[in-house]
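My hope is that you will study the protein record below before we discuss the fold together.
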Amino acid sequence: MAGGAGSRLSPLTDRRAKPAVPYAGVYRLIDFPLSNCAHSGVHDVWVVQQYQPHTLGEHLAGGRPWDLDRTRGGLQVLFPHLGDEESGWHQGNADAIYRNRSLVRQCDPELVLVLSADHVYTLDYRPVVASHRDRRAELTMVTTVVPREEVGRFGNVEVDGEGRVRRFRYKPDEPMSEVATTEVFVFDAATLLDELDELAGDGDDDNLEDLGEQLLPHLVDRGRTWAYAMDGYWCDVGTVESYWRSHFDLLGPEPALTLDDPGWPILTAATPRAPARLWASATVDDTLVAPGCTVRGDVARSVLGPGVVVEKGATVRSSILLDEVVVRAGATVSGAVCDRNSHIGAGASIGRLDDPTPDDVVVLGEGVEVAEGAEVAAGSRLEPR
């Protein structure tokens, strides 16, 4: 499911689909579920697009990076369309599935695996499917434990001792537990389509916004929904704060997620670049540096995307710099996310210099230019140029 506007991640999503947002220097968010599919042997993959589709379509490259450019099956991209009873804009992920129901029926699958395209995690889907079949479930929800103060961003579940989901609440104000859905769902295909038809009623699809609004609670009440608890790292990076914070989980001597595991590498469509160049004047500590970078200044606990330039005398701390960002001599960038082609002038000061928190994050939109000597306060959001 890759069609949402991702407004909570603005201004990074003002000119691109959220699943196309760069991550960890050389990846895009959608690379994670697509890599999981490839490694799990899931080779019939549909990507539902709507918002800024061209920005994601270019990256998908026909499915080639994930070995999904196949004669039969492979990657298929679904768009809103006109001309039949299923036409119209998708009003949410449940509505998007409903509007493509005839295509699903033509394929006649036993199961439908529904994934969000903008979460960071690695997971083998095969044991999830096996558990679903063993339990003869109508729905299996992959779950994880999150801090209670964050549960309100997700689907919240109550699970009994056997693993059956007894109650479900969508983005609750008062959570029942610390157990949240990861937006990885395995559905019995016939049940999914029949329930969507029933909820839609006589052609009225107003009840079919997001899965959590009507469909998931309805299936939980039927008593054949089970939880599959995942043990590894999972992060919803749908807000600026979580996007910024999650990058630091990749740093340090024991990162929470290994991106280059030989047995489960994250695959992507990347433009070849020359190796990064770190000059003698550079000081680089606990930082991911992408190909094509030129670093002469001081960088710590940060992530530099392809082609980033940090001049001598410049300082970058606790920041995420996307493609082709330039930080001129004497500038200081701290606790910031700088979108591609943004330019920080000589002597400028960006963000809070000491121990920035998620609330302090500065975001520079695409192509923003900060003048020489200018100051940008912590928490600022500068729209794309």
The chain has two domains: 7-248, 277-382. The first strand starts at residue 22 and ends at 23.
